Amino acid sequence: MKITTVGIDLAKNVLQVHGSNDRGKKVFNKQLKRKHVLTFFAQLPPCLIGMEACGGAHYWARKLQSLGHTVKLMAPQFVKPYVKTNKHDAADAEAICEAVVRPTMRFVPIKTGEQQAVLSLHRARQGFVKARTAQANQIRGLLTEYGITIPQGISHVSRRIPEILEDGDNELPRLFRQLLQRLGDHLKELEHQVTELDVQIHTWHRENEVSRRLASIPGIGPLTASAMIASIGNATCFENGRQLAAWLGLVPRQHSSGGKPLLQGISKRGDSYLRTLLIHGARSVVRVAEGKATPTHRWAVDIVKRGNKNIAAVALANKNARIVWALLTQNREYQSDFSAAM
């Protein structure tokens, strides 16, 4: 019996595989050890394979594509409604196999190895930034117990630690001075790691023509541009710019019933890291928009007049996401007066 669709429930060592024919009838549902997966699928004729977008999914997708199969990744929350019984590996694999053939299903783009490498740099940098902030807050809190306060801003912490250690009149115990020196050295090391990763990301950005093109958009710099390229990849998987903005959670959350539409705040779905970068970049544009003559700055000023700066920042982030989609799909350069010309 010919197998046309396969659903794989991914795991670390043992993967559950469910296969069905063109009528949707189950052909097999069995477990495969990790070392036997590629051998098993190499013997199958080319078919449609569905997986949840989770840890290791992009790796397996690239491997199975190299064997001639068509692989599609789905968000786990879209697969859950198709689980008919209690949750277990066999039921999950069957649900994946059924969900992947739905005509309205939304799929996740498969990332290349280079995309994952760039995203790994961003994730590692984000972790170091969080650790740096936590370490600075800990130092600030410990010093407060001895009556020493430090102004807001992480730069003040690094600058004040040597002054505090050299001050002999602050009555800090010797044991605490040794601890403060250790924590200060740790903070410097975290700052060094963040700086090095910034250099690597900027180097990749300068070598990538598409990333440089996105960085010409007001509110998008090398950090945001490289993260967008690594996360989105092929933008043609989105039908329009609004779908990309919705994927990033930058569109209103809707709760409508009985013909009464109700739009709330932004949905905050999707990648919170990308959404944060876009909104912070938009805030920088809104902050200096007053007095600027470009169409983008004038548009931001009008939004601020009708609402406030936070609304303008989110609106500009949404607009930038749509511009990113247009530049990626149409292979165009950014033109600040493009709308006016049209």
How would you describe what is shown here?
The mean pLDDT is 92. The protein has helices at 37-42, 57-66, 76-79, 89-99, 113-144, 154-166, 174-207, 209-214, 222-232, 241-247, 272-287, 295-306, 309-330, 338-341; strands at 5-9, 14-20, 26-33, 48-52, 70-74, 107-108, 252-254, 263-266. The radius of gyration is 25 Å and the shape is globular. The chain contains 14 helices and eight strands. It has a six-stranded mixed sheet with strand order 3-2-1-4-5-6, sandwiched between helices. The chain has a two-stranded antiparallel ribbon with strand order 7-8. It has three domains: 5-108, 2-Layer Sandwich (Nucleotidyltransferase, domain 5); 113-207; 217-256 and 265-341, no CATH class. A hairpin with a 5-residue loop joins strand 2 and strand 3 (26-33). The chain has 342 residues and is α/β, with parallel strands linked by helices.
N to C succession of SSEs = EEEHEHEHHEHHHHHHEEHHHH
**Looking at the structure, what is the overall shape?**
globular
> Percent of residues in helical segments?
40-55%
* Alpha carbon gap, first and last residue: 57 Å
Strand content: 5-15%
Q: Could you give a short account of the major beta sheet?
A: 6 strands, mixed
- As a whole number of angstroms, the C-alpha radius of gyration is 25 Å
Q: List unreliable stretches of 5+ residues.
A: none
Assign the structural class, choosing from mainly alpha, mainly beta, alpha/beta, alpha+beta, or little secondary structure: alpha/beta
**Number of β-strand runs:** 8
Number of helices: 14
Summed up, the domain count is 3
Let me know the average pLDDT.
92
Q: How are the strands of the largest sheet arranged? A: 3-2-1-4-5-6
